Amino acid sequence: MSAPAPVIAIDGPAGAGKGGTAALVARHLGWHLLDSGVVYRVVALAALRRRADLAQGDRVAAIARTLDISLQPGTVTVDGADETLAVREPEIDSAASKVSALPAVRAALFDMQRSFRKPPGLVADGRDMGTVVFPDARLKVFLTAGAQERARRRYRQLKDVQPGVSLRALSKAIEERDRRDRSRAASPLAPAPDATTIDSTAMSIDAVAEAVLALARERGIGRP
Ligand code: DC
Fold first, then answer.
1. What is the DSSP letter of 86?
2. DSSP tag of 10
3. 31 domain residue, yes or no
4. What pTM value is reported for the model?
């Protein structure tokens, strides 16, 4: 049997720059891309629309199993409808963090996430890519940034689409989400023991992507 396709796992807290970095690295290598946070966002959106209790793991997991999710760079389609903007609404930030704490929901999404692993390779970003979903990833990066900087980045992303948004409220929401993602029992946000930590506070996304590609080259993966 041939070896499974190689994986680069990029995990870390909200606003650390995982999504942008993963997209650049995948594009440079010509590899597939999995933004696993979007998968939890889609489940949260579907659960809210069906008025499900977000604390009921079995109910939310049953909803998760019915969804036909298609991820293309920059576009999220669910059961044929474009939900790219809907999954980025602030109420989905916190709902996704809640449903992602439910072990039944994580189990329901496990195989679906692993199905993204195809030749020539996969760049996957999230919270547990290197610890749980792809423990044999060839390269594991844990991307962090200071809490203030992460809130500022989110603010810059949102201020044009949500003119009333406040940096203070975003800071609070990010802290709350991090606390929940780190303290949950099921696959908490934490670096894998064999992960390389990169602090992106004072780095551009291009510089972070270059650092990840340099680590990949050291491991003999990707283009020279
Ligand atoms: O990266 P993001 O902000 O789009 O993720 C949304 C939520 O999903 C986040 O609060 C934590 C959760 N998540 C997770 O638990 N495991 C992942 N692999 C990815 C995201």
1. G
2. E
3. yes
4. 0.94
